[in-house]
Fold:
Amino acid sequence: MVKAHSIKNVTGKKTDILDCQWIQQLLTYGLLHKSFRPDEATCVLRALVRHREMLLRYRASHIQHAVIDY
Structure:
């Protein structure tokens, strides 16, 4: 898997064969960069961190509304 921005579009008529040839040429010259794909544990941890951040934002908003309503 490579980073999408490493692959430039082929100008002109676009076909799968032209794309394949272009990618092969980029690979031959070492112009493609690996894409980072985190493992399952990292994906789970990131999801938990995002959920925690959302809960903290909700908590802050709830506290602000409680103070205003008081």
Summary: Residues 40-69 form the longest helix (30 residues). The radius of gyration is 23 Å. Residues 1-36 form one domain.
